[in-house]
Structures
1.
Amino acid sequence: MICEVRHVRRCEMGRRKDGKAKTKLQGQALTPRQRMVGDEKEGSSGDARKKSTKRKERTKHKEKSERAEKDVKKAKAVKSKSVESFDDDVRVHSAVLDEPEDGNFVPNKRGKKRKRQEEPIEGPSTFKMNNLKEEDEASSGAKEKSRKMKKPKEEEGACPVTTKKSKEEKGECPVTTKKKSKEEKGECPVTTKKKSKEEKGECPVTTKKKSKEEIAAGKALKIKKKEEEEQQRWRWWEEAKYEDGVKWKFLEHKGPHFPPEYQPLPDNVHFYYNGNIVKLSLAAEEVALFYAQMLDHEYTTKEVFRNNFFKDWRKEMTLEERMLITDLSKCDFGELHAMHVEKVEARKAMNKEDKLVIKEANQRIVDEYGFCMLDNHRERIGNFKIEPPGLFRGRGEHPKQGYLKKRIQPEDVIINCGKGSRVPEPPAGHRWKEVRYDNTVTWLASWTENVQGSCKYIMLNPSSKLKGEKDWEKYEVARRLKSCVDRIRLQYQQDLKSKQMVNRQRAVALYFIDVLALRAGNEKEEGETADTVGCCSLRVEHITLYDRLEGSDCVVEFDFLGKDCIRYYNKVPVTKRVFKNLKLFMENKEPGDDLFDRLNTGLLNKHLSSLMPGLTAKVFRTYNASITLQEQLRKLSNGTANQAEKLLSYNRANRAVAVLCNHQRAPPKTFDQSMANLQSKIEVRREQLTLAKSELTLAKKEVKGHCSDSKLLALVERKKKAVQRCEEQIMKMEVQATDREENKQIALGTSKLNYLDPRISIAWCKNMEVPLEKIYNKSQRDKFAWAVDMTQTDFIF
DNA sequence: CGAACTACTTAGTATTGCGGAT
DNA sequence: ATCCGCAATACTAAGTAGTTCG
């Protein structure tokens, strides 16, 4: 069935020109989270147009040899048009739009960086079900609802209320009070393996055999460790900030950790070509193994992936090998794959001691490379490991998937550290590409990755000062937006009537960003990445206008792939003015043309920062997410509920945000199973409850007969307790089931980690008397230590 | 000015490993 | 003791946005 659907869709896509057929079909048959699954023939990108000379690295893989002539023609056409329209644009800036609604204005069609994807023709139908999600009304309905919830524009107009308290809250001008001098001088002796699982101090009930003392001792130890850790914590938020641009004064680290060298295959594992054993050179063998290891993965069924891999693999081969191996389908990686599977199994089946040995070895690596000294404090590094080589796993229909991601050598790595610090030693026999001493950046090491030509950095852990400070600042900017968002909204409502096209487009885009929490939508280089869009890069084909739909007027249907190729699908009623403008923007355009042809993120952000210092498009997402959480918590939570219910309402508030921000996940593979398990558990409990109840009545009866036999009375009490316990447990499980079901394809983590001001959650926990551990795990508490420390019950975002 | 370059945040998925159930 | 389910963590791709360069 799915295949059928897919087939149909392909056909439709084949004539995507009209835009409509495609969109409609997607809306019906595909799921909200549909990744563009596709068809890789011809690398899916047919357009020769390259707007500019790209970086050298970037051109490397650009052998788009076979290109349909018509595409070239089309590209040329577009190009010339774009030149034309540029002039036009200049004029129009000052041009007057007298009757724009009547369509006097002819929108130009500037070809931006992106280019139309070549239409899929056919391909292996390896449609992975579990990447799909059923499109259900419920979910889009929920989205709309959540949208409405935060719509009330002037409702929270009373924002100034916040200012009162927030003053000292934010401690904008942190006094330099060095309270904690403790570790200050102690130089942080490299002790404290903070690996401790003190996490849940509540349940010391590990092994029953342990004596009471042992348990107590363990508990005490944990508490002590916790305290120690707390004392060690750098309370940077109480210190003065550095002058502009300076990120640190002293930085010392051991450099990145490199992955182990490649281990050649054992002699009994063979690669076959065309049925014959072929002993590959080391380099070619390593790359072959990368592929063999992925054989179970859907990637290896994709044409683009296979072609890209093969192309890059052949580059690693010796001349001889290259002559011989010319067809991927004649390659047999079976034994390599089997060896890999075996290894994985063996690792799983390892006994405890061996596992411990490995664990300890890993720990030693962490101890050595995982920390740095930054301004007298020992900070955790986030990713201290150089990314190992492998095959590039781009998301969605990425044109570069399958290319070889090369092994990084010390000679590729730039080290950044403090002047006067001990410069990290390169691995024996090697040297660094460069050592620099730049304290205006936060990275410790960087290298250029070969597939996309972009930079990779080694940076600190989220719990570090450098990250925390930035995070705090982010939420403060969002809170500032709160106090002027009404003005800004008023302004863009006005701009919807502007005589200048660019202003109208900006206003509509801003409306989307504000109301729907869309991302900004930077331009992307065509053919270099999957075809995804954000607000400013929306194309005509991504929206459909309905004068009337499902009981609402002026409905816009969005259907596009956003970041990470996550589908955004939503039907939203908009104001008449926005609707009219959209119609105007779409006039005389092809489906593949930009909706906001006069706008880009730079322009938009420039405008925004003129309205409020520090304001950019993404601040709206932060602001709307946090304010939604706050509102929802207020609405949903009930101080008299029990803990499970309170947590459910928290999760629901969190969920409203995740829906708003379109944070999705693949439903866990075991979802249905585990749901069923939970249900059957509930059933069992129910039976127990019935039983307990009848026992209780029986006991009561007996009491009545024998007046007050103390034994019987005790029995009744016991039975009562049992009934109660059962009820509680059932309730708890039911709440859990609800929560899990609602969470099936929603990811809460992203918003919790990146969009929700932690102080809202912390204040809520305090007010609701819910332990913070129920909301934030250990690393989240570390990340938000600044907020945990400073937040009082009266915090208002 | 726009493209390129750089730095840093945000994102979903894969892997790990813990604790409870058996 | 082992298995299993899930939460936590690791990983790295893919965004945003500021700065520099031609």
2.
Amino acid sequence: MSIDADQMKAGSQRLRVTISDVSEALGLTKSTVSRALNGYADISESTRLRVRRAADKMGYRPLSHAQAIRTGRTKSLGLVIQMADHDAQRPFLAEFLSGLSQGASEEGWTLTIAASDSPETTFETFRTMIADRKADGFILPRTMSDDPRVKLLRASGIPFVLFGRCEDPAGCAWYDVLGEDAMQDAVRHLVALGHRRIGFINGGMQYTYGHLRREGFLTAMAEAGLKIEPEHMRENAVTIRDGEGRAHEILGSSPAPTAIVCAVDMAALGVYRAAAARGLQIGRDLSVISYDGIQDGAHVTPQLTTYSVDYTHSGRRLSALLIRRVMGEPVETLRETAQARFLNRGSTGPPA
Amino acid sequence: MSIDADQMKAGSQRLRVTISDVSEALGLTKSTVSRALNGYADISESTRLRVRRAADKMGYRPLSHAQAIRTGRTKSLGLVIQMADHDAQRPFLAEFLSGLSQGASEEGWTLTIAASDSPETTFETFRTMIADRKADGFILPRTMSDDPRVKLLRASGIPFVLFGRCEDPAGCAWYDVLGEDAMQDAVRHLVALGHRRIGFINGGMQYTYGHLRREGFLTAMAEAGLKIEPEHMRENAVTIRDGEGRAHEILGSSPAPTAIVCAVDMAALGVYRAAAARGLQIGRDLSVISYDGIQDGAHVTPQLTTYSVDYTHSGRRLSALLIRRVMGEPVETLRETAQARFLNRGSTGPPA
DNA sequence: TTCCTTGCCGAAACCGGTTTCGTACCCAAG
DNA sequence: CTTGGGTACGAAACCGGTTTCGGCAAGGAA
């Protein structure tokens, strides 16, 4: 048994087939094999095919860190998770990571992650990851209006891709879901139901999405000819507690709105609480439409009507875009947006 | 501006100080510098110091992937997240990752993660990560009773560390929180309050923790001379929905228990719902003690009394242990356990 | 036929480290 | 004064790839 283990270990070590093994088996040199596999023009099509087939048959897989020493590319994507955002991103972190990982591994890349406890250490984390070449590029979730991470990476010349858009698009590739369209649609939906007094609880205004969703809300309100009541507008609500507090403030005004649009689901769950505390029944006395599509929204009564974002898909697209960015594609061709999916559940109805 | 960027880029490229830069600056050879920095015995103390200081002053940082090609070690820890566990692990995934990342980066290592959608692809994911040397070792969360991951890694001779214990300890290092002690303590707490009929809703029995927590519960019940009612025992509840269903089953029996111990917080939140549906007030009509310490437990009324696990610390310890394992320490010295912290909040009281 | 391309591949340097091996030097013992 | 054994370092191979450069042979133009 110990012998078996040793043999197995020695075997798997010795059995790892290197580029030299392939070249010797074919009577070619390493350089030819390398260039054949990497699609250089000075290799004949027949040789390229011969090499490709032999490599596959022999099970040759280049070691990415061996390539890295010459190419400078590790084939790994970096993600720095900010602990401060935990509460806000907890609901979809798993899906997001899964998507990123899928997108990376589909191309044979990996995902390297680091966590930082505070905004200050975030910077340091990026610095060391960059200095040590831990990643060829970075995914930046939760784009901020004046994002220090963007500045740092731009200055360092390190590729990156945003989850969210950015005012100054220089050097920025991104993927984003059009929250402003969802907010517009939400208002239209409520207006169609007959609502005239609609409140808005926005998310974090340090993020770009805060301004975009605000615009979307305001646009649709103006479009419907509805007046904006400052009493019905709140922002920076990203947790249940935040949402609960803002909802109480809004519902305490008079006349109170008959519907509230929330920029994030967590805040909407807070609205549920405030409503319960005030004896208001969601969907009948107060309509709520939100955004994100977190799991918990399906576990409250009535189920939360929301615009659902596919975070797995978002992650996958972000990885794909970042890889193309690292490989040299210009940022202009690496900007994608998508629409959130409307989940029309039970939290809306005609005004009481 | 483009010139600045070029200079900066060229600068940072050229400025990266290699081992040769250090050796030339000192009038030594690469090999001497390398051995000095790596603590070889055939380097004089004075030289070692001189090298160490020069390297620090020059800001020399070895490239881990350059070292890897010779040493075989990437200095990276692997984690494969199973999508199937998402719902169960969602509440603490962020903290856990953060801890793992901290523990790794404290030693200059990194965390490489991959996600797998199904149990089948999990295996494949491990295989490719191993084959491509993406990680020097793996962290295995959610240890199962007959864990296929353990078999694979054992057979491959790849280091790993478990989050959770394991029946067959051969080759297994681990970190675990003693859930069985918490379950015992929970029962004692309830007994001290006067409860005689205590139910138990266990978590997933495919995991080792399921059996351990069951033992803990049974031990304390026997110790208190209380009878085990099969009607009051349920298992495999890891989501709110699960817990809700199990609670209804248990509470539908007669006589129903006056208290329920849950192996996981998510299930306990389900108990809250079932209780609400039945007009039972938690803490007065029904006592609940649970385990995990998830955030949501502080957001229900009354707050959930639970045994809180520090997932950040767990992650940090796991990384530290795995690194030592990769560096060659025998598994016997790499087994740590800790106690969960009792959060005595509002969900218990004397029996009605 | 000669010269010049062009296509295709080999030889060797290179990337940034680590590790093996050889050896000069110093000191003590014979 | 030679000899033997450490000590401390240099030289060079090595890890697994990539990339530059040069050259040979075939083919076309002069």
3.
Amino acid sequence: MFKELDPLLHSQLRLAVISLLIGVKEAEFNFIKEKTESSSGNLSVQLQKLKEAGYIEISKGFKDNFPLTTCKITDKGIKAFEVYVKAIKQYIQVKK
Amino acid sequence: MFKELDPLLHSQLRLAVISLLIGVKEAEFNFIKEKTESSSGNLSVQLQKLKEAGYIEISKGFKDNFPLTTCKITDKGIKAFEVYVKAIKQYIQVKK
DNA sequence: TAAAGTACTTTATAATATAAACTAATTTAT
DNA sequence: ATAAATTAGTTTATATTATAAAGTACTTTA
């Protein structure tokens, strides 16, 4: 009846992050932070979880001498998002 | 950018319950339990939360001598569900 | 009348999310 | 030169939430 909702994506912040990355393909830590209106701490934790799941890649470098964290969605992340979208639609009864 | 997702509805089981009740308007505890494939304990707790939020009404009676719990969505619950659906659509980019 | 079953609720534990505090460095002001 | 403020995060502690296990209160069946 109701499909499982991937717990990794069924989290407001992580879902927002993935939703953002689906659009832009690559984004900086602060860009994501602003768009999602999250705290640095919370975002840091959730990005790690998405990385551990293999849904995003995180690369660390520097920009104007400051550390810069950049995130990119992976194929696995895209696939997981698609599965999640199909599942949640069952719950919200989106008729195609 | 991203709308708040009502934490009361952003829970797999509670969302499934509300999604069910939107359709049938009234349902028995076991019907909900079967459709959502949840445990009695978890369902009991989540129904109480939905009740406390005023999203559903719970009425208790008897059927064939056994206790019978029946649930019904309230106007507030319907409204909250509609708001949730609008919000989550932003995340999953459902184009109308 | 004892064992098994129905229909839950309560409580305890595990998992999750969030906020606060901390690290490490850079820039700016004194 | 150096202290204070800022940037860009991470780590840790706490609060919240979800879930599973145990418990309550019966009823039915053997």
